[in-house]
UniProtKB/TrEMBL annotation:
Pfam families recorded: Nfu_N, NifU
InterPro entries: FSCA_dom_sf, Nfu/NifU_N, Nfu/NifU_N_sf, NFU1-like, NIF_FeS_clus_asmbl_NifU_C
SMART domains in the cross-refs: Nfu_N
Origin superkingdom: Bacteria
Lineage: Bacteria, Pseudomonadati, Bacteroidota, Cytophagia, Cytophagales
Name of this protein: NifU family protein
Amino acid sequence: MTENTTKAVSVYAEANPNPESMKFVLNTTLLGEGGSVDYPTVESAMESPFAQELFNFDYVSRVFIASNFVTVTKNSPVAWAQLIPELRTFIKSYVEAGGPIFLGTPTTSTAASASAEMSADLSAEDAEISQKVIDLLENYVRPAVEQDGGNITFRSYKEGVVTVNLQGSCSGCPSATVTLKAGIENLLKRMVPEVQEVVAEGITL
């Protein structure tokens, strides 16, 4: 008889500033360190059987997966207190059973990929500023945003304006605009004098 060495998976729920999102933290790895994936629709989650299964719950409207947690956003007025036990049980059972998280290697958002995607026609000065911004986002901003169940990725820098993308719980969060302006923009302005403004894709001020 072969000894069962399957590791017991623990899952706990952690609230974040977005009342419509809940972060489920595991004691095991779902995705390589530093990477994350954001699925705003079931159609966008074709590479992740795990995310697709979560979308089968009719109240799930968005799934965000990072190193050791998954953030679920709901579109239902039902309180989280009623939904958490069901989701926690599903996540624990799925991962313990060895269900596939991804089909192949997922398309993740990382600082490295942001650097690689920087437009080749940037001037040397803009490329240098962009890299400074990426480093600051990665080292100072992203860890705090991940604590809240989300992610921030660099999109572009042009004429003093930094454009970022907010994912997971940060997308649609009522406090995201305040965080963006009072926190992230102030930090970047202080550390990189060339930065005049920070805007987020999909967020209207």
